[in-house]
Amino acid sequence: MADAIRKIVIVGGGTTGWMAAASLSRYVADKEISVTLIESPDIGAVGVGEATIPNIVAFNKELGIDEVELIKATQATFKLGIEFKDWHKKGERFFHPFADYGLKIDNVEFHHYVNRMKAEGLDVNLQDYSFACALAKEGRFAQPNAGPQSPLADYSYAYHFDASLYAKFLNKFSVQNGIKHISANVCAVNLNNDSGFIESVTLDDGLKIEADLFIDCSGFKGLLINGAMGVGLTDLSKWLPCDRAVAIQTELVDEPTPYTIASARDAGWQWCIPLQHRMGNGYIYSSQFCDNQMAQDELLANIKGKAINDIRQFDLPLGAREVIWHKNCFALGLAAGFLEPLESLGLSLIQTALTKLYTFFPDKSFNQHDIKEVNRLHNTEIERIVDFLALHYKLTSRDDTEFWRYCQNMPISDSLAHKIEVFKSQGHIVQYDHESFEEASWLSMYHGFNVNPRRFDVRAKNINIDTVEKNLLQMKNSMQSAAKQAMSHQEFINKHCRAVCDI
Ligand SMILES: Cc1cc2nc3c(=O)[nH]c(=O)nc-3n(C[C@H](O)[C@H](O)[C@H](O)COP(=O)(O)OP(=O)(O)OC[C@H]3O[C@@H](n4cnc5c(N)ncnc54)[C@H](O)[C@@H]3O)c2cc1C
Hints:
It contains 15 helices and 23 strands. By secondary structure, the protein is α+β, with helices and mostly antiparallel strands.
């Protein structure tokens, strides 16, 4: 049997590095396995990445982190989903909740009855059958706590938080739990001449740090995986049109919404992410249709409140690392690639990659089949996500700018084309293995972009239309009245988790 891994080195102390460190301290580090994180005192972290999806709640919980303590420390607010403004047509909006819609009727999925009612000319909106949508519409928040059968419990939530404060929080947590922290620049990565494995990294004071496994969390450049090992990026710009961003933070003017706002703009889209103490704003755009100055002007014209930092510009290398695991180097976060943040997946991809690492945790023989399997699973996950992101652009009916006309006509993968056509036929959602977005998310998009199937599922015909209407009305009323009982998002924060002082 090959020897066990004894030493792990993480290079990079942005959100990724500290998420990896915290997680390794919980699942892997012990008396026999040491974990060291090396972080440059000179190279700053990206510091954006403030909207999350619900698995971040589970991530922190599994680490044993107290939720209220975390929320206070990171100035976090709650997120029930994303409001999409002006994506289908200017003036229209829809919500993508972290939730399912309605309840099965006669063992047939709920949305087929919505399709039937639409086909019969009745005015029906899928969003009226999600408690999370009802809460969001009212600007209210409650944590899901009813029985599993209740549509009032069938939703999840995530956070908006200050990414730098989150990294700081996890830094403290990790060090308390045995992770060694070195503040230094890695200036060389030393490979074994025969095997090509990483043997050590050299710090700027000349010290060499050896390890069995290296985790590259060094950001876009991928100092180890790319710089030393030459693993490149698979270009995704064919499917995802936005390749630049500008971002600015502003004072909070209104009460924070319990959701992210993604507003379509002339050459891309703008995010608004409310925290307890400020608003994060950014504009992601296509350099083919908009230059940096135009983007800055458009962002500044669409923010509320006084700016509290300088506007920041990002070139986004849109692409996924060809493989995230090569020899004894495992890449995470921006070192593993970048998909645009439309569905706030950056931090979630760190979590899912870590789970794969633990599932196939190596010994010193670094079994090639395990490595290949992790890379296969990761690449499949990315392909599915890219399809879902591309859907947001492809389904637009906007033709008022060159960018949106381009999106309507842009190429899409065969798998996405197949999914759209299957939905257009009878309203069925195609789900492949390793989908990050479940049926309800795809439904949110199809309905939000007003894509209606030509026919509805034949089983939805078995019940008299009046009974269906009555059933739906009851569901809608119960969700709306329950939503009105909940506290406003701001009241909920004030009562349970108000950050003690503004940062
Ligand atoms: C515009 C934009 C918006 C985004 N929005 C979201 C979002 O809403 N939600 C979401 O989940 N994700 C989002 N992301 C992604 C998210 O920001 C990243 O996943 C997250 O910040 C993690 O970054 P990182 O830690 O991998 O890299 P970085 O933040 O770049 O950190 C790299 C670390 O490596 C260190 N380092 C670099 N070189 C060396 C060296 N030579 N020696 C030692 N240390 C070194 C640096 O000091 C730093 O600590 C967004 C990204 C961008 C660009």
